[in-house]
What does this fold into?
Amino acid sequence: MKEIKRTVIVDALKREDIGSEINVRGWVRTRRGNKNINFIALNDGSTINNMQIVVDLSKFSDELMRTITTGASLSVNGILTESVGSGQRVELQATEIKVYGTADPEKYPLQKKGHTMEYLREIAHLRLRTNTFGAVSRIRHNMAIAIHTFFHERGYFYFHSPIITASDCEGAGHMFQVTTQNLNDLKKTPDGKVDYSEDFFGKQANLTVSGQLEGELAAMALGKIYTFGPTFRAENSNTPRHLAEFWMIEPEVAFIGLEELMALEEEFIKYCVKWALDNCSDDLAFLNKMIDNNLIACLEAVVNTEFVHLTYTEGIKILETAISNGKKFSYPIFWGCDLASEHERYLVEEHFKKPIIMTDYPKEIKAFYMKINADGKTVQGTDVLFPQIGEIIGGSVREEDYDKLIGEIEARNIPMKDMWWYLDTRRFGTAPHAGFGLGFERLMLFVTGMQNIRDVIPFPRTPKNADF
Ligand code: 4AD
Ligand code: MG
It folds into this structure.
């Protein structure tokens, strides 16, 4: 085979030099045709669009052609030609074809179109080769780039918080332990407890649920930081919106309060959604056609809408009024309750029909670090609530007053000795500050229109499932 430098298909489809011989490489999506001529749809992952390879069967052996089936990988030299068929501007008239790897049609699991999402989860090692998961993967990459670009352009520093930690930031206790102890022969202290002094870190250690506490340390030095990394929660929530391993983006900013925090949350999400509209149009068009016909309209609406600012107390009133007008919810509503996603979605999808930033929650249902309002009952927490998703961001102004913070830590029985380094921020040069956490996969759900969070991360970890 003639040596020609490879062109990736996303670039090949844009080439203007009709008549040139070029080389593309990729995997066969489909092959069709008659006894004289065949059409191979070749995809190399660089774009959702395929290169159509036109094969004059009189020029290629039956033996070679038999191996060119769905899933096989090829290198193709061919003449770039204007396409007469609809669907593509250019195609390749094959001059030489090399098969790198065959895919036995009797055994290759990705034969027909229209596999269910459930089936594709069972073959997550191959589903990346489908149009849907190719599109989701490219959009996921783009969202990561958008996030780094957003913060970099605004002077934030990317800060690496640890994955292994001894503290439970959210205080909810849903943590995975990290240990090197032999669980079949645990060392115990005289009073029967596990003896962590023998363990790798000399104390109990866990996978982090959030990088916020370390992020706050950095904000008190660098001013504006963000983290972007994996976080882990062992909550047994088998829902389409929960993962045991998910990625979170957590900016933390010194010298800002509630208004600036809310403005940052809104600007940030809009920037990411606009980035997708501007940079992922082919993939979004595909998902709009195949997954959710309202997707692009919904993304555009968010970019062009002002988010509603609503206090928790106002939200409860609206929900109570809805109930007295006949609306039924599964979970009860009362001041002090934690809103369920049915409540959040009612407010967003039915009442306001816009994203909502909800603030001023009862302190009992929020984490210890949130700034307490003058009323002594509510805190300056902010949840951003989105259509289809519910909570996409959780954030707050932080309590910067040492005594108030200690009061909350004691009231909640949080082990103080583990928190000394965090408390030092409030002892030395404390300053007002605020931050939030965006669940990366929740953003991905919104931007792709996919229905289940297991389908926006390559290899989902959920209760009873850590395959691949
Ligand atoms: O509301 P959360 O628990 O807030 C924090 O962790 C704070 N430390 C953030 C901060 O202020 N720096 O989580 C933040 C976001 C949620 O709004 C949600 O989008 C996502 O993380 N999230 C999950 N995503 C997928 N699966 C789960 N189990 C999630 N739990 C939270
Ligand atoms: Mg939350």
